[in-house]
């Protein structure tokens, strides 16, 4: 299955980056038995936060959804490291959590987080369907517009 997941990523035009180093005193992922929990990932591209600001102000819904997608790409890079380089070990995306920097009156958080959720399903098929929480927040590290974390079952 490892080749199948890599093929799906390639067909989507996605090359996973080198996993980002933590920004503070935590680890990027924890593996416990068959579970892997990946710490929140920002919309990093080429070592910089690609989408900054708040939804409902300077960031459009479309840019927010792209930021969520980019966050999930970075989650997948961490997950691949946790799976010793073999994403074929992933049996299920259990949960994704999304944090959306937004104005107090913004209400389209779920549509933004679909950028990550849709990619999870595109990459893993039915095993990519997951439980999810999406929360609006006042700010995120490095001024990021979105942050995404995940929990996965692996073989």
UniProtKB/TrEMBL annotation:
It comes from Acidisphaera rubrifaciens HS-AP3. Residues 6-137 form the Endoribonuclease L-PSP/chorismate mutase-like domain. This is Translation initiation inhibitor YjgF/endoribonuclease. Signal peptide: none annotated. InterPro entries: Endoribo_LPSP/chorism_mut-like (IPR013813), RutC-like_sf (IPR035959).
